[in-house]
């Protein structure tokens, strides 16, 4: 597939709002944490550089010395008021106030401004405390007459009252309101960024995208099944939902059509990444095929992280697993576990092998498959993730068909198609893919823990493997 126009293809395949909603829900703690951090930081910085101030105000009037109205024409008023304002804003008054307060620097500011169209002046003092603002106003009113007398000529400035502490007001810097605005803005920005990143992430979010972007046939989708108290998500468990069972049935129907055309009896089930649910899907495919009267053998070939015996809750006798057979230490009959109805049969893996790919290429592996094909209608191999472990590349040369399990919103379409190309170059045909753990609502747990995968799988060790504790019986 040409990925030069991948973003356009993803856009055309439809935006999955449910996936975006789930991603946002999952990241709510981080979204709130980042927004809260920005809000708190701004609140602290803003309060430091622009703290609240206390304002004391006094109205003053300009009148003529002889108290005659003829000298108070419009021109005279504006001219005299302007000179009075200049005197009150001058450094001279500031020096007088400093001397009065006995300080080297004013604890705030003194500002005068005219009231347009009148002979009134508004004098304000601002300081970080109410006391400092009140003291500056008192000192300014005590000294203003000395400063303005030589500038105003035949006019006087008179205060309209006495300064009162009760009239001092606190002027807020609005730090809280601005911080809340920033908090909301950051949240909206994060939501937008997460939404855009989700849309263009390249991860498979729904069946529509999957059909358009993946170079393989669509077999079906399996909706998320909440595990809760269920021991395992198997069709043999009566607590599994009807929807889950029906979706598995549809998937098996599609699979059988493909296998009947190719006339192949053997196929392996793999995934691109770990914890996509391949082992559970493999087990349920076997159970569903058996319910249709097919004789099935399910083999756990995942020797890096064996999970099938855990999912089925089986106790495996020591020396009766597939590794023992491949090493020539056990016979075919000893490693095949048959059910009472003789339709579902299992071959388990319980050991972690470092060089499992070598065991899978020996003659014993081919003998096992040949013998199984003589007895069974279908042989299913649960293999490691193809994007992590080399074993799948080895098996691709001897297993004719492969089913790919893709968990919603995990693997990218580019990586999935790369794995499909790798498998087909190895010799196997990718029969199709199953979209697993599909969520059709925003609220509801869809993590690997809820689905029960991590409980069984854990993580694949990319370094030297150690044997895991398994349930074996001597």
TrEMBL record:
GO-annotated cellular components: plasma membrane
GO MF annotations in UniProt: ATP binding; non-membrane spanning protein tyrosine kinase activity
- TM spans (from-to): 28-49, 177-200
- E.C. number, please? 2.7.10.2
Q: Report the sequence similarity comment from the record.
A: Belongs to the CpsD/CapB family.
- Matching PANTHER family, A to Z? FERRIC ENTEROBACTIN TRANSPORT PROTEIN FEPE, TYROSINE-PROTEIN KINASE
Native species: Robinsoniella peoriensis
Q: Which EC class is this protein assigned?
A: transferase
Q: Which InterPro entries match?
A: AAA_dom, Bact_polysacc_biosynth/exp, P-loop_NTPase, Wzc-like_C
Q: What is this protein called?
A: non-specific protein-tyrosine kinase
Catalytic activity reported: L-tyrosyl-[protein] + ATP = O-phospho-L-tyrosyl-[protein] + ADP + H(+)
Q: Which domain of life is it from?
A: Bacteria
Segments forming domain AAA: 277-386
